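Bump. Still looking for Hypoxanthine phosphoribosyltransferase structure tokens.
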Amino acid sequence: MPVIIDFMSVSSYGSETVSSGDVKILKDTDLDLRGKHVLIVEDIIDTGLTLEYVIKYFKEGKGVKSLKTCTLLSKPERRKVDVQVEYIGFEVPDKFVIGYGLDYDQKYRNLPYIAVVIPE
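Sorry for the wait, here they are.
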């Protein structure tokens, strides 16, 4: 099966540790996805607001044929909306996590592990 990979940058955090709920597409996909089968791969799903926005954007704005979602980390106790996630790596508690690509104000993405931020 041929696979094509593209990237988007979508944020609802800014420099805060709690989702603002204001979802912004910082970089859109470069591909024409009309009629395509799409797998969204997320780092973390928190409130679900960002994923809900992206799913709606892909289905209505991009006209994808099918859509499934996958995430490394999921925080089910933080959900504000019901989003379907077909593939989940790990469920984590309601803590702000960093490392392994996850950042706090653009820092700590390079950590080779996932850690919890402890407020001072």
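The chain has one domain: 9-94.

Edit: fixed formatting.
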